[in-house]
Amino acid sequence: MRLDKFLKVSRLIKRRTVAKEVADKGRIKLNGVLAKSSSTVKYDDILTIQFGNKIVEVRVLETKDSTKKEDAGKMYELLSETRINQDVKEEESR
């Protein structure tokens, strides 16, 4: 399954176009490697997603073409959620 579609169906990101933009800006890693929106996601992959001031790491448990809202959370396992300190972010941008 394509990365952008997985993010939408699992509801990690609400819209597929937004998921594509986030991936194409280099904010998503798939198994430690920068991923494009067209990258293939499969069972047991590790996704690291940078949302503004937090980084979320999840393990893919299943891929489905569609899902109900209440079942979307079963598609992945949250491994970690880290807040990025604003001072650290400013240091990295220099």
From TrEMBL:
Domain annotation RNA-binding S4: ranges: 1-63
InterPro entries: RqcP (IPR025490), S4_RNA-bd (IPR002942), S4_RNA-bd_sf (IPR036986)
Alphabetized GO MF terms: ribosomal large subunit binding; rRNA binding; tRNA binding
Keywords carried by this UniProt record: Protein biosynthesis, RNA-binding, rRNA-binding, tRNA-binding
Gene3D superfamilies: RNA-binding S4 domain
CDD domains: S4
Annotated GO biological process: rescue of stalled ribosome
Domain of life: Bacteria
Key word Protein biosynthesis present: yes
Pfam families documented for this protein: S4
SUPFAM superfamilies attached to this UniProt entry: Alpha-L RNA-binding motif
Family, per entry: Belongs to the RqcP family.
Summary of subunit composition and partner proteins: Associates with stalled 50S ribosomal subunits. Binds to RqcH, 23S rRNA and the P-site tRNA. Does not require RqcH for association with 50S subunits.
HAMAP family: RqcP
Function: Key component of the ribosome quality control system (RQC), a ribosome-associated complex that mediates the extraction of incompletely synthesized nascent chains from stalled ribosomes and their subsequent degradation. RqcH recruits Ala-charged tRNA, and with RqcP directs the elongation of stalled nascent chains on 50S ribosomal subunits, leading to non-templated C-terminal alanine extensions (Ala tail). The Ala tail promotes nascent chain degradation. RqcP is associated with the translocation-like movement of the peptidyl-tRNA from the A-site into the P-site.
Protein's recorded name: RQC P-site tRNA stabilizing factor
